[in-house]
Amino acid sequence: METLRERKKQRTRDALLRAALELFTTRGYEGTTVDDIADAVDVSQRTFFRYFAGKEEAALTLQEMTVAHFIELVRERPPQEAPMVALRRAVLEGWGTLNDVVEAIVPVELYLRMYRVIESTPALLAAHLRRSDEAEEEIARVLAAREGLDVDADPRPRLAVAVFSGVMRVTGRQWSTGEDFSLEAIRELTARYLEQVGPALAGNWR
After folding, report:
1. Which of 11, 14, 19, 178 is the most buried (most CB within 10 A)?
2. Averaged over 181-205, what is the pLDDT?
3. Which long-range contacts (CB under 8 A, 24 or more apart) does 70-73 make?
4. Mind giving me the DSSP string for 43-111?
5. How far is it, in rounded angstroms, from Cα 181 to Cα 117?
């Protein structure tokens, strides 16, 4: 059971995260300082650094949470599903349950606006892609375990994840530069693009 102190710390962290995203999406990432974020919550810079290593971590925290949620959804997919089917259904379920992941901290609309800031900010995009590499390796290992494969001996898990991630990158870029920035739009675009993946990796591996 959470103590009063733990709840207070969580509220402070959530408030700092909300303030950071609001500032990043209105002033821009480069135009926002750690002091700005701390001042918005009426805490010290030192308090900010108790919760986040820096601006980059605050900017990417929700992305990390949603990636972790997606990986858990992949793990939970029925074992009889072909790997690419499991990835596709997990990501669509992830978009469908995004509210469950982020709404306790920020409105989904703010999360989606931050997604666009990441896509349009070179420093953040580079950091996001670097972290994505680590997530892709974890997903490949989850797929290999599902299929009873050695991820270092069979190339298919990493190939499937590379294809999937490439589709997701194209989807995210197209959505972030389009005119409809809704959750429904990115979910529909994701489904449509993933349907274009060919049969070589999409079939059953067993």
Report:
1. 19
2. 80
3. 70/94, 71/135, 71/138, 71/139, 71/142
4. --HHHHHHH-SSHHHHHHHHHHHHHHHHHHHHHHS-TTS-HHHHHHHHHHHHHHTHHHHHTTTS-HHHH
5. 12
pTM of the model: 0.85
Tally of CB atoms within 10 A around 180: 10
Average model confidence (pLDDT) for the chain? Answer: 91
Q: Rounded to whole angstroms, how far apart are CA atoms 84 and 24? A: 35
Torsion angle in degrees (nearest 10) through CA of 87, 187, 22, 35: 20
Nearest to 32 by CA among 102, 130, 117, 106: 117
Consecutive H or E run containing 158: helix 156-176
Secondary structure letter of residue 139 according to DSSP? H
First and final CA of the chain: distance in angstroms?
A: 44
Cβ atoms of 94 and 70 closer than 8 Å: yes
